[in-house]
Automatic annotation (TrEMBL):
Residues 114-274 form the Archease domain. Residues 23-58, 77-101 are annotated as: Disordered. PANTHER family: ARCHEASE, PROTEIN ARCHEASE. Residues 86-97 have a biased composition (Acidic residues). Belongs to the archease family. It comes from the Eukaryota. Coiled coil: none annotated. This is Protein archease. It comes from Pycnococcus provasolii.
Length: 274
């Protein structure tokens, strides 16, 4: 049986029919204007592409270095204690060199010149030294040692402090000890040795008195404090906490140059609240 013949092809559209279809399409579908891209936009994108392709290698290195530095800071906390302390020691070498030039630190023998005297409720610090700076350094060491044994403190960090607003030795001593106490309670930093700015004097030459209100405030004195972060396990836990410095029965004595040979020209008695 023969297959059926294919259907006849439709007749071609006449020119009039094509014109009618085109007119209907243009009226039914609105045309959206195509806005050409501006030459300035093309130029800016082109320049941006060129900048990305031609960016110097050192610029990329700087950016990567910033990222690595930020990451290394967060990773440093997870490093073994020995490695972290070694890095800290390396960083502090330059600081120690600068501090030795700018500040005069008390010797280990000087900071050991203190004792604790009995008191009904608190504790009285008794310190002495051949200079006022030695006396103050041993006074700070005495207070810290009452909370954390000095023998357990390493000098791995340096803090800088300014004592300002003093009018006499009483206010200077109070502010000095209060700053060291704030470093411990506020920053978790235990101080071991204190250095005073070279060429500066704690007691100004024109001071009218050392144990009473002077006629004018004393100049500010800059200090460098060496010590480290407090770690309870390594520092033997918390000792007796010093809560505050007091003016109660505070006494500062300058016995005169004739007593220099005894290493007790300057002497201090300070009661701290525990």
């Amino acid at each position: 049986m023969a297959p059926p013949p294919p259907p006849p092809s439709p007749p071609p559209a006449s020119p009039a029919d094509l014109a009618l279809v085109n007119s209907l399409s243009q009226s039914a579908l609105p045309q959206r204007a195509r806005v050409p891209r501006s030459s300035s936009r093309l130029k800016s994108e082109h320049e941006q592409t060129q900048m990305q392709q031609n960016q110097p290698a050192d610029v990329v290195d700087v950016c990567e270095e910033n990222v690595v530095t930020a990451a290394s800071i967060s990773r440093k906390r997870r490093l073994p204690d020995g490695l972290q302390e070694e890095r800290d020691d390396d960083d502090d070498d330059d600081d120690d060199d600068n501090n030795n030039k700018l500040f005069l630190f008390a010797s280990p023998q000087s900071i050991a010149a203190f004792e604790y005297l009995d008191h009904p409720a608190d504790v009285q610090l008794h310190t002495w030294g051949n200079t006022v700076e030695d006396m103050l350094a041993s006074l700070g060491a005495a207070m810290v040692n009452y909370m954390v044994p000095l023998s357990t403190i390493e000098e791995t960090e340096t803090k800088h402090v300014e004592i300002a607003g003093a009018h006499d030795m009483h206010t200077f001593v109070f502010t000095f000890l209060d700053e060291l106490l704030f470093l411990f309670h506020g920053d978790g930093f235990v101080a071991k040795r204190v250095g005073f700015a070279r060429g500066a004097s704690v007691v100004p030459p024109d001071a009218t008195t050392t144990n009473g209100n002077s006629s004018a405030p004393w100049p500010a004195v800059r200090l460098a404090v060496r010590g480290e972060r407090f770690e309870p396990t390594r520092h033997g836990g918390h000792g007796t906490e010093v809560k505050a410095i007091t003016y109660s029965a505070m006494a500062i004595h300058d016995h005169g140059a004739e007593t220099a040979a005894t290493n007790r020209r300057w002497e201090a008695f300070v009661i701290v609240d525990i």
